[in-house]
Amino acid sequence: MQAVLDTMIDHKQRDTRLMWALCVASVVVYINLYLMQGMLPLIAEHFAVSGSKATLILSVTSFSLAFSLLLYAVLSDRIGRHTPIIVSLWLLALSNLLLIWAPDFNGLVLVRLLQGALLAAVPAIAMAYFKEQLSPSTMLKAAGIYIMANSIGGIVGRLLGGVMSQFLSWQESMWLLFLVTLAGVALVNYLLPSLADAQAMSQSKTEPSLSKRARLAQDLHGFSHHLTDAQMRLVYAIGGLTFMMMVNQFSFIQLHLMAAPYEWSRFQATLIFLCYSSGTIASYFTAKWLAKFGQHKLYQWSWCVMLLGSLLTLFDTTLTISLGFLMTACGFFLTHSCCNSFVAMRASRDRAKATSLYLCCYYLGAAIGGPYLMMFWHEAQWRGVVMGSLTLLALIALAITRLHYHQTHVKRVLV
């Protein structure tokens, strides 16, 4: 009996360590991803580029992150979950040293391209890691905490970037980022159990050996299975277009708030990121609202909230801009949660590949959105950004309508 109790305690401790390790890893990743968004004014000044050009830093990082997600989905299936996460995080910490001595803006872009590839490991692998190691009830709890960690990491990263931009030089800021990342990675390295790799290795020994070509064909078939599903494609488009609009709106509103008549300081401009908190709260209630109202209604409501939020900012006061971004963040996170749950429920096979495809489109949207909205910014400043956003909202509405049509009139072809 005592042996059984000791085993249960060991499993509980391992589950707790896994949950907190991946949550800390998530915070580290999203701090590193979004810190630059809070530092756009300092980047523009230090590297002698325009504020709008500085926004490309977020785009290039999101671009390399998007496609790296697909590689990690395959790699973690081959060698286990633990090793790719740990190796990528240590390399991420070391890569921050390159930021300290980045010679010019082009050098900064190259380092951030590299970092995007390293940042992809945790979001690509975390949910699969939870699913393999935790019981269903524990996984639901872990997944909820993990999503909150994503949001917290994004908010902290942006606000920390604002503090650095206001009070520290570029080199001082990057040294602080290096130390924060190093401490976080060391904690993840201590907490994260390595059992999954041992399981993956033992499982691979029992599977019939496949040639490299056969393995590649198997992986490509897993991706193509989801890409040939019309409903999956539409959900990928909804997630990508929504993130394309929302995350880049937050970049350009900083430039708007730092100009006349507001003339906010660098740090004050980053306080707009506190509006993300409405999205964190909305995410918490999404499961309940999905069960009560259904997916299509929630898509419609979130789209209306994003539309009203964007239009409200045109009144161009501190209050209307703040309320508008609270609404946009709320609508975005509702949409994102709906998309995530749909992909998880829809994928009957190759779930890691289904999720990685969604996240690829999601971050690819962020990468494309910067240059896209920049054209509107140059033409008409913030009003131009809103006009560009309305075009994206029209495409999102079309995708939502098509998705509803497929769900009500077209039967899925089972493969």
TrEMBL record:
Membrane-spanning residues where? 18-36, 56-75, 82-102, 108-130, 142-161, 173-192, 234-255, 267-286, 298-315, 321-345, 357-378, 384-405
Domain of life (superkingdom):
Bacteria
* GO cellular component, as recorded: plasma membrane
Membrane topology is: Multi-pass membrane protein
* One Pfam family from the record: MFS_1
Q: What InterPro entries does the database record attribute to this sequence?
A: MFS, MFS_dom, MFS_trans_sf
Q: Which GO terms describe its molecular function?
A: transmembrane transporter activity
Q: Which Gene3D superfamilies match?
A: MFS general substrate transporter like domains
Q: Where is the Major facilitator superfamily (MFS) profile domain?
A: 18-409
Query: Which keywords accompany this UniProt record?
Result: Cell membrane, Membrane, Transmembrane, Transmembrane helix, Transport
Localization per Swiss-Prot or TrEMBL: Cell membrane
Task: Show the CDD domains listed in the entry.
Answer: MFS_NepI_like (cd17324)
Q: PANTHER family given for it?
A: BLL2771 PROTEIN, INNER MEMBRANE TRANSPORT PROTEIN YNFM
- Give the family per the record: Belongs to the major facilitator superfamily.
For this entry, the protein name equals MFS transporter
Q: Which organism is it from?
A: Shewanella septentrionalis
